[in-house]
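Field log, afternoon session.

UNIT: design team B
ACTIVITY: writing a sequence onto a fixed backbone
BACKBONE:
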């Protein structure tokens, strides 16, 4: 996908006079967030997208952050704005996300983009769920008619991935921390998406033989300190028909889909200008 996008972006200067421009705002110095922001800058470089990372201290007043977003909204040379989450507790993530112009919301988190997704209208699809569907397509797995179970109901992963699977005619069950007898539900899954944020939570006894397992979790193993997913990969891999690793699965796909969303926002703007 990155190679194809790089080829496409290389044609933009001749056609439109410039390349897409993504601005990433990082508030504070959380090491995980810093690493995600670096990953986004690196992918932008590979694809040929201009990337500006704006760093602000953790104690930035909310009003100042909102002013920064307003100035980027008004800047015609900016196509995509992404505020790296989570934000410090004194800042409302909801207010910040809603302040980003819908047309520049490359994460697809703006309330109008969320509404459009649920109403099956054109919108920016959130990167992680979009990447998950892309991965299924890439190995020829059609969700139609399949029993899909999503563990996790967050706005950024669980809910939108469930909606995308539903739109592709899967029969979807959404599980959460109060689901009774979770293993009995997950064992029904032909497609199992796990997005909870608990190291190696999903064990082999929770997975049906031949299931497709998508592990969204990014955790630190409490013993080794290494990155690990929400699924016990070593135990589940022999049982699953396909499974995504952590690191190296959903994470890189998410960043790749962010590049795609930035290009889409850029192109929509060019079409409007024509
Ligand atoms: P979140 O907002 O913290 O939501 C976690 C969800 O998991 C909640 O719905 C929660 O249920 C559910 N949950 C927690 N413990 C559970 C349990 N014991 N049994 C069943 N359900 C349980 O998390 P998120 O933002 O969706 O992220 C989830 C994980 O994905 C994290 O590790 C995050 O780092 C990772 N992530 C990765 C990417 C990527 O690109 N690879 C992108 C985004 C997130 P309740 O609603 O009942 O509390």
């Amino acid at each position: 996908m990155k190679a194809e996008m790089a080829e496409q972006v290389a044609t933009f200067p001749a056609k439109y006079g410039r390349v897409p421009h993504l601005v990433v705002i990082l508030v504070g110095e959380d090491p995980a967030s810093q690493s995600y922001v670096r990953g986004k800058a690196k992918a932008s470089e590979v694809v040929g997208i201009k990337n500006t990372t704006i760093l602000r201290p953790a104690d930035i007043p909310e009003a100042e952050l909102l002013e920064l977003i307003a100035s980027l909204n008004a800047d015609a040379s900016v196509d995509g704005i992404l505020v790296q989450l989570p934000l410090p507790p004194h800042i409302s993530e909801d207010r910040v996300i809603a302040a980003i112009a819908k047309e520049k919301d490359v994460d697809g988190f703006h309330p109008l983009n969320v509404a459009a997704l649920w109403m099956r209208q054109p919108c920016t699809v959130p990167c992680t769920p979009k990447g998950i569907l892309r991965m299924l397509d890439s190995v020829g797995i059609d969700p139609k008619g399949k029993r899909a179970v999503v563990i996790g109901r967050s706005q950024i992963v669980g809910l939108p991935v469930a909606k995308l699977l539903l739109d592709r005619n899967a029969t979807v069950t959404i599980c959460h921390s109060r689901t009774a007898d979770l293993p009995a539900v997950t064992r029904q899954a032909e497609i199992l998406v796990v997005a909870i944020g608990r190291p190696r939570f999903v064990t082999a006894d929770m997975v049906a033989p031949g299931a497709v397992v998508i592990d969204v979790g990014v955790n630190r193993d409490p013993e080794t300190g290494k990155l690990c997913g929400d699924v016990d990969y070593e135990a589940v891999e022999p049982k699953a028909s396909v499974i995504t690793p952590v690191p190296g699965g959903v994470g890189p796909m998410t960043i790749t889909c962010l590049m795609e969303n930035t290009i889409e926002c850029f192109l929509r703007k060019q079409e409007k200008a024509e």
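LOG NOTE: The mean pLDDT is 97.
NEXT ACTIVITY: expression trials, pending approval
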